[in-house]
Every structure is written in structure tokens, then in C-alpha cells.
Amino acid sequence: MAIPDIEKTAESSTSSVLSGPGEENISPALVQRVEDLGLRIYDGDIVDWGSQSAAHPRNWPLRKKLCNTACIFLLDSFRCVDSLDCALVFEICAVELIAAEPAAAEYGVSNAQSLIAVSLMYGLGEALGSIVIPPYTEAFGRKPTYLVAAFLLPISCLMTGTIHSVVGAYVGRFVMGATGSVSATVVVGSLEDMWESRAQGWAIYAWVLTAGLGVALGRWLYIIGTIISSLILFLLLFSTSETRSNVLLTQHLRTLQSPLRSPTPTHQIPTFRTFCRESIILPLHLFITSPLILLTSTLASLSFSLIFLFTEALPVILLPYNFTSTTYSLGFVAFAIGMLIGIPVRVVEFRWLGRKEKERELTPEDKIGGFVTGAGALVGGLWIMAWGTGVGVGWWLPMLGLGALGLAANEVEFALGGYLTDAYTTHAASAFAAYSTLRAILSGVFPLFAKHMYQELGVHVAGTILAAVATAWLVTPWVLWRWGGRLRGMRRGVV
Hints:
The protein is mostly helical. The chain has two domains: 53 residues, no CATH class; 406 residues, MFS general substrate transporter like domains (Growth Hormone, Chain: A, Up-down Bundle), CATH 1.20.1250. 72% of the residues lie in helices and 2% in strands. It has 18 helices and three strands. A three-stranded antiparallel sheet has the order 1-3-2. Strand 2 and strand 3 form a beta hairpin. Helix 3 packs across helix 12 and helix 7 packs across helix 16.
């Protein structure tokens, strides 16, 4: 299996320059060692991947790719069970936010303070991690970051589940959010590292569908999460490999350093100052100044964060149907069904893309079908939730609205991951960080005011506000289709 972009020479993002003797001073033995490592030498002293290098993640055997992908998905799945990440799991979100009220009584604090511990602190931790961690993995590698996250996750679970204090909940949930941001933001970069463009679509879609199911276990939820997360740490330690190609190339170059009598260059591994400037400040700058990231991130964040809002608002919305404080969470089954409805949609889209690929080279804008279906489902679902409830209206209608929101969440997440992966290639994790940061903040803030908003304004008015905002962003897919290439060109001038 060839690596299309590896054939690029000076432009290759994974090439490294060996300062030292010219081509005439490179011995045949050294050339043979380079070839044995699956590398090649050109222009005298430039070392890059060979197009068929078995060590490059894109050329790994299928079994190794599947093993690494499964382990990453497993970490993300159980991170969801321990967290509030409704992007991939819905039941546990309802369970934990429902648990905010009894937690308030236990800690002796108000319900708002309890919600801050359960929801906002996690969101702030994930937002901070989404800014710092993805660019770090692009410079220094994915696997060490996964291992640190798998190590800290059970510790944060233990803090939250065993310390009978609101302070323990605040700290535990913040650490949990920061570590959870690793799998929430870096996974898409790992998938881009390993899989070719066509396979990336299915890999990202499988990641989006990854879900952990939670039950109302109270503190035992975190105790169980501690045990499972600890087991995942050992699995990641012994069953996964580094996928970042520039890090792997640098490791190979270190083995060649002595024969070349020249230090291994470090321009692929930046200094801390360069890392902060280019990998942390620049993504923030892009989020503020790039219309491409602003449009996609806002639509996707709104789509996923609404599920957090409805965990608090649903008791008010479903009040005419006599749902209790616990049985109303079963309504999120409709959300899950909506996510699964997206599977046949993906099959149809992938077949269409396959036919198009035979005619011409695909562009990222060819893959925004998920934005079209997702944005439409989001708007339709919100209008149903706004005006499809009340006395005389069957309970099935708001369930239909929740199903549409589930379809929207899945479609938009998939489309965003695929679009940013194609548009930003090896910097996909940093591009994805803007969305993850905004989503984390909104997910932490929405539950704080959701219930009061619906109680004070009424279901129809509050729902109309949300639906109107979503309708305004309905223009996003058309903008991407019409001007996406130009917007990406603007981005290249910055990155």
C-alpha cells in the first residue's frame, strides 16, 4: 500500500535534514542501513520515508492498524463512561446530571454549585486540554499522551467517587475533563496517521458511534470506572504503537546519528517556546480569524452541546406526559436510534464518493454530506422540540425530535472530523481542538441555565430561541460547498 504524500520531497512534513557530510561522504553501509529502516536518502543529506516503508503507520499490516484503533476506541469509550462527553454517549450524561441534585444534598451545597462540579468543571478541564494537548501530540507523539491520560483517568475517578467533599468533586471532575480531552481530540489525528483517505471515513464514523452505556450507580460509577480505566492503561502500554510519522522518523534518525557523525536535527521537535507560539497560540488565532473553523466548530458544538441542555430541560418539556425525574432519561433512547439511522446514510454517501473518485480527485468539500443532513436534522429536531410538545400532543412527537437531534449529532460530528482531517491532514488534531474546546465550554455551561430558561420563558419560547439560532447556522453547508476551497486557501497562508 503506497503512501501518496510521501513522494513529496522538500514539501514533506515528515522529512528531516541531516546536517553533515554531503552525499559523497555517505558510505554504502550507511545507505544500506537507511534502506533497511524503510527510509531513503535524496539531495545528498535529506532522509524521508520510502513509499513502501513497512514502518510507516499508513503501511502497517491491517491487524496492527485494527489493534491500535480498537485500543484507542476503548480508551475513548470508557472515558465517556467516566465523563460527560455526550458527543459519543448520551445515557451517562443524563445519569450524572440527574445525580447533581442528590450530590447537592450530600455535600451541603446548592443545586447550582453541584451542577458546577458535575458539569462546568469537567467542561473547563476538557476545554483547557483541547487547547494544549492536540498540538503537543503532533510534535512529540500520540502514545505517551494516551498513556498519561489512561493513568490520570482512574485517579480522577477515584477522587470523585471516594472523597466525600465538593472540593474533591471539583478537582476530580476538572482532571477528568482534562484527561478526557485526549481521546476526544487526538483520536482523529491518530486515525489520519494510520488510515488512507477512503478508510478514514469508516474509521472516523466508527469512532463517532463508539458509545459507553452508563447506569445509575451513584459513586460506584466512578469506582468501576477506576478499575476499568486502570486495565485500559496496561492494554495501551503493551498493545499500541506510536502513530505520529515525524516522531517515528526522528527515532530512526537517532539510530543513524553515530555513523553520520552529525547530531540529529530538531526542527521537527520544536523548543518549548516555539511549541507554545505555533501549537497553542496559533490554533486559538485560527479559531478566531478562520471562517472555516468558526463555521464548522460553531455548528458542531451547538449540535452536541444541546444534549447536555436537554438533560436539564427535558423534565420541563415532558411535564405534560407525567415522566418522572428518572424515567424521562429513557427518552434519550430516541437520541440513540437517531444516531443509528445515520448508518445507511453513510453507506449511500460512501458509494457516491466511490463513483466520484473514479472520475476525479476528491476534495474535502465533496465530503460535507454529513453537514447537509446533520444541519437539516438539527433545525428540524429543535423546531419539533419547541412546538411539538404540550397538552393534546402525543409523547412520540418530542421523541421524534430527539431522534432528529441524535441523527444531527452523529452526522455533524462525522462530517467535521472527516472535513478537518482532509483539510488539515497531519495537523488535524489541532484543527479539531477548536471544535472540542468550544463544545466543552458549551457543554459545561448549558446545564447551568437550561432548566431555568425553560421554566421562566416557557417551552415554546425557549425552544424557539434555540431553533432560530440553529436555523441561522443552516447556511454553513452551503458556504462550505461554495467557498470552502477559498477558505482553506486562506488558512494555508497562516499555518
